[in-house]
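Let us practice reading a record.
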Amino acid sequence: MKIMVIMVHPDLENSRANRTLMQYAKLNAKGDIDVRDLYNEYPDWNIDIEHEQQLILQYDRVVFQFPFYWYSCPPLLKKWMDDVLISGWAFGPGGNSLRSKEFMLATTIGGPEHSYRAGGADRFTISELLRPIQATFYKCKANYLPAFVTYNVDRMSDVAFQAEGARYAEQIFVPAVVETQY
């Protein structure tokens, strides 16, 4: 299986969590994996739409890795989705390019897991909060895989990060069990 991880972090150099996960994904990969840094590739935010579309078509699975900011993804990822996943290509009449392609989210959260549940400090589960992105991939007739989530990254030890990195490198390659949603 050929996998592309698209890292979307506006300050990756200073992100202990996302840098560690990305390094583990590269080093411990059990298959064909390429990692890209979207903020590094597009510092001016001028996304090469055709290039991005052609890249996606080369991979079986695309993983978007990002820090969870204000209950959403970083703004460059939202812009990427708006620019790249266009009608006639990703959805709508003639838009079948992503049909059955696998997409996964990998996100890091500063807060503890118990905050992300009904009655918790953040009121909703991470699954509920990621629904708009999930709906986007369903609209594109793609297969949305379970998200990889690392909580409490602000207080995580190096040993815990190593364990999370190993878990991440493994989950990226888990075969999909997907119920077609379209």
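A brief commentary: Residues 153 and 160 are 9 Å apart (CA to CA).
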